[in-house]
Design goal:
133 residues, mainly alpha, 2 strands, 3% strand, DUF4112, transmembrane
Length: 133
């Protein structure tokens, strides 16, 4: 994959991660949620759909040939959110707080800052742009 394709892939990961975990600001308190905890409210299939989307993000991230340790943490984040998220209501609150996709985006961007300076020349890979609240 050339640099332009890698950057497109990274931006796709960013868009999906933010949509799932931090797209909506709750007025008054400023806390951000995404579609993940909202989809999780659908009994039976909501958490499965959110996990499939997270797995797709992981698939896209794996194209960067991440080391096993980084991929392991990404899988852990997704698995933890899937397991705890399956608990009715409490799991949805956990999904809103834990934000596994944003955590995985931060892991990916931190790795890319070190390993792929050509991407950083085109795109600053600014980790401050990853909203964690």
């Amino acid at each position: 994959m050339n640099t332009a394709a890698r950057l497109r892939n990274l931006n796709r990961i960013r868009r999906i991660s933010r949509l799932m975990d931090s797209a909506i600001r709750i007025p008054g308190i400023g806390f951000r949620i995404g579609l993940d905890p909202i989809i999780g409210l659908v009994p039976g299939v909501g958490d499965a759909i959110a996990t499939v989307v997270s797995a797709y993000i992981l698939f896209l991230a794996a194209r960067f040939r991440l080391p096993a340790g980084v991929l392991g943490w990404m899988v852990f984040n997704i698995a933890l959110e899937a397991v705890v998220g399956a608990v009715p209501l409490v799991g949805d609150l956990f999904d809103a707080y834990y934000k596994s996709n944003i955590r995985n985006l931060a892991l990916l961007e931190k790795h890319l800052q070190v390993e792929e300076p050509q991407l950083e020349a085109i795109d600053p890979l600014n980790l401050a742009s990853v909203p964690t609240e």
